Amino acid sequence: MTRDLHALLGDLVIANRILAHEGVLDDFGHVAVRHPERPDRFFVSRSRSPELVSRDDLLEFTLDGVPVDPKGLRPYLESVLHARIFAARPDVQATVHHHCPAVLPYTVVDVPLRPVFHMASVLGGPVPVWDSRDEFGDTNMLIDDVPRADSLARALGDGTSVLLRNHGASCAAYSLPAVVFVCVRMKDNAELQTRAMAMGTPRYLTEGETRLTSEMLMGERPLDRAWAYWRARAGFSGI
């Protein structure tokens, strides 16, 4: 294992712990990262709650969602969700699937989740909603096969986030710190937008504000600062 891969897998464990600590992930949900030397492979934990994930839980997968060596461990049923986003988006290096309680109301009502403050510009605008019924009728509501995963990837398009009707959300970005940033700001924006709507009609970011601010926040300096902060809050300060 190369030094870069060793460090990346350590960050994958930390990303799981951060998102659990920040209330984005709970007993369910998962984080994946693309192999830095094999674009046709990625890593995600075995089926385990994110706050408990360790290095020994990490499994390598193909872009068909098949574990290279399952090591006798049970993978997440939705590992294929990450696989097909990586397959559809060569630019994406990290993905998250979550069921954040603050975000879930926007999956069950016809109110778009839209950036209402500058940090949430990374959502890219109104977040699209994928409804599995449109193509597949009634299902178990998991994205546990290639056709559903491909459909979800199409709904994500070239953006950073997509909502799953009555289920949760998936986020994608060019690095683990970037996708963590998107997920946490999605949570923050959902909470703020809900409070603002209770007071009146929110003022949303314009298209230009969203684009320009997102480009700035996805830069190295803001992400390094946020990642260091969330690492410390999750108990990884000084590591």
From TrEMBL:
Family annotation (Pfam families): Aldolase_II
Start and end residues of each Class II aldolase/adducin N-terminal domain: 10-194
Gene3D superfamilies: Class II aldolase/adducin N-terminal domain (3.40.225.10)
Cross-referenced SMART domains: Aldolase_II
Top-level taxon: Bacteria
InterPro entries per record: Aldolase-II_Adducin_sf, Aldolase_II/adducin_N, Aldolase_II/adducin_N_sf
Transmembrane segments: none
PANTHER family in alphabetical order: ADDUCIN, CLASS II ALDOLASE_ADDUCIN N-TERMINAL DOMAIN-CONTAINING PROTEIN
Protein's name in the database: Class II aldolase/adducin family protein
Organism the protein comes from: Pseudoroseomonas ludipueritiae
Species classification: Bacteria, Pseudomonadati, Pseudomonadota, Alphaproteobacteria, Acetobacterales
